[in-house]
Amino acid sequence: MPHTEPIYEHPYPPAELEARHPFRELDFVEYPPGEMSERAAAFEALMSRRRSPRLFSDRPVPRELIESAIRTAATAPSGAHRQPWRFVATESAAVKAAIRAAAEEEERVNYLESRMNDEWQEALAPIGTDHHKEFLQIAPWIVVLFEERFERRPDGETRKNYYVKESVGIAAGMFIAALHNMGLATLTHTPSPMVFLTRVLGRPDNERPFVMFPIGYPLPGVKVPDFARKPLDQVMVTVTEPHSASLERGDDHG
Ligand code: IYR
Question: Is residue 24 part of a domain?
Fold first, then answer.
């Protein structure tokens, strides 16, 4: 039987909306079912090999690749389409040295002066991180992803952004996937606190550092913790009927 599509009671966009704001037809590519499965399996296999190395080569990486990864990440959905992200990229030895020095200073306090409590340090024990962050100087590129807490318009007015952390978090994931897909490695790094990045990179007060990405080729032979990922049955739950408690409260909508 050929599939018949549903008829919507509330079509989108309503004519009044389209009269005031431009719309265009979605450019959606559909694949035959067999090809969908193949693509799914290939992407899953590709992504399952992604890891976060802690030693990078100093081999140069062309700027074009970094630009492509940033363009890809910037396709992320965002609250009210505000695109509240700024990717601050550097391959400058002086800038990377300054970032390393400031990051190591903060981490020295975390690790050696116990700003991270025992529980946190125990959680990190299998990874074996410490306050040395040489990779920040050695990796050919550092990209710091800033969240734009609000927008500063050319006239000086400010405009609120929405779901900033969610939006920037999604963009970060897409950035990591884009880098991995092109054959580059990155380490999701959040030296804490990160405010020094605002200063070292000279960013305005409406931006806040979200995560830092040293990017490059992994150092040949680098080791990573022998971690396993949670199997599907530990990360996926299927729900087949509304939970009774929510039915009683009548909050099973929206
Ligand atoms: N910011 C510190 C500590 C750290 C915290 C977590 I959670 C990690 O997964 C890894 C490190 C550091 O970068 O060393």
Answer: no
